[in-house]
Design a protein that fits this description.
Pfam families: BrxR_CTD, WHD_BrxR, WYL. This protein is of the alpha+beta class. It has 9 helices and 10 strands. Strands 6-5-4-3-7 form a 5-stranded antiparallel sheet. Strands 9-8-10 form a 3-stranded antiparallel sheet. Strand 5 and strand 6 (about 190-195) form a beta hairpin. Helix 2 packs across helix 3. The protein is globular.
Length: about 300
């Protein structure tokens, strides 16, 4: 069933909503739920739309998605969640709001004059590593087309730029950098190449024989089992368990074998030693021997 705007009313079946409208509906729910006040400015500033369109979107959300979710509050001069608010196009998890903040702060970093309507927020980000756009495009297109490509690359172990014929298959974002997972003909194995260390494009070398399907470490999933540091008191363990959303005293994170080193780094863990203070360590890897086999 569709309304006069062509928007499907059965949200859960196939998501029959235009992508850009769905994103605006999601923002409506996220802002209303977590900030407690939604205005047309949130939509206008975040999506660059006119106030009339923003009002139309809010009315469409109330008409077609969740008629009882929002109520207008004249004192707030905006909409607030009703007593029976139920997320319809979001999950209602705090991570959605935090990710929205991170995305918008990143957007505002590029377009510094924009006021996107999210106040009282500050975000620390690591320094950006310089990535040549021509090189990124070449790698993306080679991965998409299943091609080998000859690239100039520098590494910390070699002072000179050298030619590397690689078959890239996936771009990977870690908390500190972007890299590309690729088969390296020189080393005859799959490796990670930091995007900022490519220096030139020497040309396409034909079809890739070694693809993602042959990358055993990429296709192998490993569970990292996190538990509170055993040296903590029961009270402290309970706090850590709550922090990491543990069930039965543990949190299981499933990671590709090739990405285990980065997951461990993101968790601020050193698999080779234990911090002297349990309060500094906080968490431990219960299946340490298994994880170590995939971490180096």
């Amino acid at each position: 069933m569709k309304n006069r705007d062509g928007v499907g009313t059965e949200v859960k079946e196939g998501w029959p909503i235009r992508w850009e409208l769905l994103m605006r509906y999601r923002l409506i729910e996220i802002v209303a739920l977590w900030e407690g006040r939604l205005t047309t400015n949130h939509l206008c500033n975040s999506f660059g739309i006119a106030r009339q369109q923003a009002s139309k979107d809010i009315n469409g959300y109330l008409r077609d998605i969740a008629p009882d979710n929002l109520v207008y509050d004249s004192k707030l001069k905006g909409y607030k969640p009703s007593a029976v608010f139920t997320p319809k196009v979001t999950s209602g998890l705090a991570d959605e709001y935090l990710h929205a903040l991170a995305s918008i702060k990143d957007f505002a970093h590029t377009f510094s004059q924009l006021d996107l309507g999210f106040a009282h927020t500050e975000m620390l980000t690591p320094p950006l590593r310089q990535v040549n756009p021509d090189i990124l495009r070449a790698l993306v297109q080679a991965a998409r087309d299943g091609k080998k490509i000859d690239m100039g690359y520098v590494s910390l172990t070699s002072p000179d730029e050298e030619s590397r014929i690689i078959a890239p298959h996936t771009l990977v974002c870690t908390p500190l950098r972007w890299h590309v997972r690729a088969y390296c003909e020189k080393n005859r194995e799959y490796r990670d190449f930091v995007l900022s260390r490519f220096r030139g494009i020497n040309g396409i070398e034909g079809d890739a024989e070694m693809t993602k399907e042959q990358d055993e470490r990429w296709n192998t999933k490993i569970d990292i089992v996190l538990v509170p540091d055993s040296r903590l008191s029961d009270y402290q363990k309970a706090i850590i368990a709550e922090d990491y959303n543990m069930a039965d005293g543990k949190r299981v994170i499933s990671v590709r074998s090739a990405l285990v080193p980065y997951a461990v780094q993101a968790l601020n863990l050193d698999l080779a030693k234990i911090e002297a203070r349990a309060e500094a360590q906080q968490i431990m890897v219960a299946n340490l021997d298994e994880v170590k086999r995939h971490a180096f």
